[in-house]
Specification:
By secondary structure, this protein is mainly α. It contains 6 helices and no strands. The protein is elongated and about 75 Å long.
Length: about 120
Amino acid sequence: MRSYSIDLRERVVAACDRGEGTREQIAKRFCVSVAWVYKLLARRRETGSIAPRPHGGGQPPAFHGDSAERLRKAVADCPDATLEELRAATGVACGTSAVFRALERLGLPRKKSPSGPPSRTARS
C-alpha cells in the first residue's frame, strides 16, 4: 500500500488548522480514515513533520547466497522434484511459496515429468 501524498497531507493539516470542521468531517471530505487524520496530527505534534515514515523493509528472502546455491544444486540433481522436496533438500525453514519465488528469481526452470498414465479420453 502506498502512502498518501504530501499534497493531501498538507491539505488535511491546513483544514484542521483552519477549523473547517471536526476531524470526522475533514476525514470524510478528503476520503481518508478518521484514525489517519488523528495519527497525522499526532505525528506533526511529536516530530514536526507530516512526511510518511520510511518503508520497514519487509521479510528478508529465505534463499540468498549459500542457500540459493544449495537450491541450484538441488534442482540440478533432481529437476522434477516438488517444492516440498526442494525445501527439504536445501534445509531452509520456509514455506513452499518462498521456494517458488526463489526459483523464479534465480531463473531456474521447473521441468515436471508426467506422473500418471494418460487419460482414456481421446479425440474422436
